[in-house]
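Q: How would the C-alpha cells look for this protein?
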Amino acid sequence: SVVNTMGLYDTKMGLILVYTAINMPMSLLILRGTFQSIPRALEEAAYLDGAGFLRTFFQIVMPCAKGGLTSAAVLTFLNSWNEFTFALMLTNGQDARTLPLSLSYFTAQFSFNYTAMFAAVTIAVIPSIIVFAVFQEQVVSSLTAGSVKG
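A: Here is the predicted structure in C-alpha cell form.
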C-alpha cells in the first residue's frame, strides 16, 4: 500500500495523513458553503474602508464563518475519534494504536470482561460528548443556516 511505501505503517503520522484525506471532502463541502454564504458586499465595504486582504479575511470573513469552521472541526474530530477500520489496517503495535482499536482488545473469543469494557467505553465517549456539548449551538446553526429561504 501507499502507507507502507512511504514508511508510515504503524506510525501516528500515517494515521494522521489518512484521517486528513478521509475528512477533507466533508470539511471542504461545509466550508465552501459557509464561505459562499458570506455576502460579497461585506468584503467590498472593508476594501473601500481601506482594509487589505489579510485584515478583511481575519476580521470580517473569519468571524462570519465561525459556525462553519466549528461544524467542520467538530465533525472531523468525531469522525477521527471513532474511526476503527483504518486504525486496524494501518497499525500493528501499541505505539500508534487508537482508542477504538484498544477497546476491541477487551473481547476474546470465548470470554468478555464486561465491567472493564463498559468502563473503558464510558471513558472513551466522554471527550466526544464534551466537544459536541461545547460547540452544539454553533454546529446546529451552521448546518441549518441555508435550509430555510424567505
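The mean pLDDT is 88.

The two ends are 51 Å apart (CA to CA).

Upvote if useful.
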